[in-house]
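Record copied across here:
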Amino acid sequence: MKLQGTRWFYTESPQYIDSLDVLTEHLRSLLASGTYVNDDWDPDGPILVEAKELVERIDGMKIEIYAKEHPPPHFHVVTANYRASFTLDKCELLDGTLPSKQRRKIEYWFSTMNAKSALIEIWNRTRPEGCVVGQYVGKSN
């Protein structure tokens, strides 16, 4: 039996697992899923949340990489009012929007602070089993 996950939750609850083999598969899937347990969010009990890793904070902007992603390899920039994603290879805007001043700061950070190598290292380390994108194999500089 292969347990299936959704973006936020697993469809099988461990309380209904009745064999050690199924529990082992559930735990293996959980560990490979790029999720973490959040027991503060839901009053009914803990839930699994998709994992993300904070790469850097720059002037109120969070630069993050999410565990389960779609192609191409990319990173996210999150502010109080904006969300954008940029390609990992060239820091090109992929989706969303940022004001030009913040976008220039991200591009400067990417080009001068050895950021690409750090992004690639985190991207590759956080790829869960079965991720459709997989490891980044392009040049780090």
